[in-house]
Design a protein that fits this description.
By secondary structure, this protein is an alpha+beta fold. It contains four helices and 13 strands. Strands 1, 2, 3, 4, 5, 6, 7, 8, 9, 10, 11, 12 and 13 form a 13-stranded antiparallel sheet that branches. Helix 1 runs antiparallel to helix 4.
């Protein structure tokens, strides 16, 4: 019986030893994915801020500027692209809606971001755009890959329509979580006008051509990223925009269109942290808890199997043998 038990334990040990790498290297890439139909809303605020009043073309100090950013998964488009891409794809239709202290629109910039559901690498397909302009993204946007590494990444900037390094700056503690901190600075760059602006009767796509007034932008963006899920738990930007030269400014060299330190609203920070804490447990189950647990379990079962096998093969001690009874066979010739 001991020999049979040791063989059963040995079989289980081999099973769990083989299951450990399968979970980490086979199941994890196939199970850890961004849902195609995900919907997310984020509210950011700059308090106080400087904002251009387009009726007078003068910059004024305001109490706050609000940016409402929505990400909506387009399931129909993702399924269509998956058929040709041969992998799981997520299509996010996003909108950055900027409004002044009076609640009126300052700008509204739509985007379509197409990426691999597991790696977050961009997938180039028809429809990839920013504010109606076709783009070809390189690098990440909105989210880092699962199991984020301590290194720089290429990060796509929607204003300039280009990618630039976002630098890893070390580990931090944020709301009790161990996170990676990243920074990216975009120097002053001439950028396009948003197609939707609070200027009735004016075609923003022809504004620079008609007036000679150009739009410039610079920002320092900061992210606190959970390295397990790759999800930012907090994000900030020190953001500045200017209009320069041309007839629109009435002889002035430049005027501030927007300036402020943009931060996530506190209630959205709290909800994001709780959501990330929940999701990181599922990722850790596939990458750490279960694989390493199965390794230790396999080792324990293997050791127990060897112990039972050794006991089953050990010769009996004559001193512990059963004494000969009356019915025991007698030696020949006795």
């Amino acid at each position: 019986m001991r020999r049979k038990a040791s063989l059963v334990l040995l079989a289980f040990a081999v099973f769990f030893a083989a299951l450990s790498p399968l979970l980490r290297w086979y199941a994890f890439p196939r199970l850890a994915k961004i849902p195609a139909g995900q919907y997310q809303e984020m509210v950011l605020e700059a308090k106080p801020a400087t904002l251009l009043e387009y009726s007078s073309m003068k910059a004024k100090k305001v109490e706050k500027v609000t940016i409402v950013q929505t990400l909506k998964g387009n399931v129909e488009e993702s399924e269509k692209i998956e058929r040709s891409a041969g992998r799981d794809v997520v299509v996010w239709d996003s909108l950055s809606y900027v409004q002044g202290p009076d609640g009126k629109m300052v700008s509204a910039i739509p985007e379509r971001y197409i990426f691999d559901a597991h790696s977050q690498a961009p997938v180039h397909a028809t429809g990839e755009m920013v504010d109606g302009d076709r783009v070809r993204r390189e690098g990440i946007e909105f989210k880092w890959p699962f199991l984020t590494e301590k290194r720089d990444y290429e990060y796509f900037d929607a204003q300039t329509r280009t990618s630039a390094p976002i630098h890893y700056k070390g580990e931090r503690t944020f709301r009790g979580m161990d996170v990676f901190y990243f920074e990216q600075t975009i120097p002053w760059t001439k950028v396009k006008y948003p197609k939707k602006m609070p200027m009735p009767g004016i075609d923003a796509t022809k504004l620079e051509e008609q007036t000679g007034t150009t739009r410039w932008y610079t920002t320092k963006r900061m992210f606190w990223v959970d390295p397990v899920t790759g999800a930012p738990v907090n994000g900030e930007e020190i953001h500045r925009e200017e209009l320069r030269g041309g007839s629109l400014l009435g002889g002035r060299d430049k005027v501030t269109a927007f300036a402020g330190h943009v931060k996530m609203r506190e209630d959205y920070v709290d909800s994001t942290v709780e959501l990330v804490k929940t999701n990181r447990v599922a990722v850790l189950m596939l990458t750490s808890y279960l694989p390493w647990g199965f390794v230790f379990l396999a080792g324990a079962l293997f050791a127990l199997a060897l112990y039972l096998e050794a006991r089953g093969r050990r010769p009996a001690d004559p001193a512990e043998g059963e004494p000969l009874g009356l019915d025991s066979p007698k030696p020949v010739g006795a």
